[in-house]
C-alpha cells in the first residue's frame, strides 16, 4: 500500500496536518485556560478587596454575624461567588450561604493563613458539594495596617470549562476538516508530482527493452521538469548513438567483407585451379595486399575503440610537440618520394609545451599527411606547417590534390565516409583516418576542419590545439 510515492506523500501531508493541529490545539487550550484563570483571579481579588473595605469597620469591635453575612450575601449575588468573612483567628463571622453556612466555625485553609500573613494565594480544587471545580482567593481585611480578618471567595469554573469544552470541540471539527482537505489536496498535489515520474518510469522501462525513441512531455519547470528535460536529451543521445553504432557495425562489416571475399576467392583459386609459378606469385601478392588492407582496417577500428573508451590508459603530459611532428614527417618522406610528390614542411624550433598524448599527436600528423598523399596525383605538392598563435598551436596540411566539394567538407570526418568510394578503395583507404583525427583532436580540446586550397586547388586541413592557461 505504501510502496507508492503518491500514497506516501498523501499520508505525509495528513500526518503533518494532524500533528500541527494537535500541537496547536494543545497550546491554544492551555493559553486560553491560563488567560481565563488569570482574568478570574484578578477579578475575584479586586472584588474581595472591595468587600474587605466594607467589612473592615464591622470587625473592629464585636462582629455582628448577621450584618456581615448580609454584606457577603449582597456581594455574592453580584459577583456570582461564595463570600466568607473570618476574623484574625480564622473564625467565620459572615457567610453568603445562609443555609448550612459556616458562621461560628473555624476555617482552617492555607489561603486564609497566607492572607493573614498579608500574602496572596489562590487555589483550584474540586468541590464535592457543588460537584464542580472552583477557584479560591483570600485577601486580608486591614484596619490601620493591622489585619483584622480575611475575605475568602470561591467561584465556580464551570463557565471556563464550558468555554474550553466548546473550543476543544471546534478544534476537533477543524482537525477533521483539515484532514479531509489535506487528503484531497495532498492526493492532487502528489498526483501532479508523481505523474511525470510515472511517465519517466514507463519511458525508462521501454528504453530498457531497447526502444530509445522515448520523449516525455515536460509539464513543470521544477526539479522533475529539469529531470524530464535531461531524460529526453539522454534518450535522443542514446537513440543517435544506437543509430551510429548500427551504421558503424554495418559499415565495418561491409568494409571487412570486401577483403575477406577477395581473400576467399584468391585462396579457393589457388587451391582448386592449377596455376604456374608466375600466376601463383600474382595471387599471393593480391592476398598480401588484401591482408594488409584488412589489418589496416582492424587497426583503425581498434584505434577508434580505444579513443571511444572513457577509461583510457593514456595520460596527457605537458610537452613540446615539435620533435614528434618532425620525426613523423621525416618518416613519411620516403612514401612521398615513391609517389613522386613534392613534400615539404615548415616547423618552428620549439613551441610552448601543451597537454598532449604524444603518440596521438603523431597519429594526427600521419593520418592527415597520408590522406593528402592518397588524393594528390604524381607531381603534386603536399606541405605541412606548424605555428604558434595567441592561444593555440596551428597545424596545416596543404595539398594540390583532387579537393573536396564544399557540401562534403564536414562529412569527411564521419566514419567510413568517402568522397570517391571507388578511388578510396584503390588507394587502400579504410574511411576511418579522418574520424580518428577528429576524435583525438576533440579529446585534446582542439578543433579540426578543412578548407579549399589556394586558387581552388586541393585542400587545406587545419588543426588547432589549445595552449595551457597561465594563472
Describe the fold and architecture.
The chain is an alpha+beta fold and 471 residues long. It has 3 domains: 5-162, Beta-Lactamase, CATH 3.30.450; 223-307, Helix Hairpins (Orthogonal Bundle), CATH 1.10.287; 314-466, Histidine kinase-like ATPase, C-terminal domain (Heat Shock Protein 90, 2-Layer Sandwich), CATH 3.30.565. The protein contains 10 helices and 12 strands. The strands form 3 sheets. It has a 5-stranded antiparallel beta sheet with strand order 2-1-5-4-3. Strands 7-9-10-12-11 form a 5-stranded mixed beta sheet. Helix 1 (5-55) runs antiparallel to helix 4 (158-208) and helix 6 runs parallel beside helix 10 (433-443). The chain is rod-shaped and about 160 Å long. The model is unreliable at 421-428 (pLDDT under 50).
The biggest beta sheet reads:
5 strands, antiparallel
The dominant shape is rod-shaped
The amount of beta strand, in percent, is 15-25%
Q: What distance lies between the first and last C-alpha atoms, to the nearest angstrom?
A: 59 Å
Tally of individual helices? 10
Topology as a string of helices (H) and strands (E): HHEEHEEEHHHEHEEHEEHHEE
Structural class: alpha+beta
Low-confidence stretches at least 5 residues in length (pLDDT < 50)?
421-428
Give me the side-by-side strand order of the main sheet: 2-1-5-4-3
Reported by name, the CATH topology of the largest domain is Beta-Lactamase
**Helical residue percent band:** 40-55%
Number of strands: 12
Q: What number of domains? A: 3
User: What is the residue-mean pLDDT, rounded to a whole number?
Assistant: 81
Q: Any guess at the CATH architecture of the largest domain?
A: 2-Layer Sandwich
Name of the CATH superfamily of the largest domain: PAS domain
> Mind telling me the CATH class of the largest domain?
Alpha Beta
Radius of gyration: 52 Å
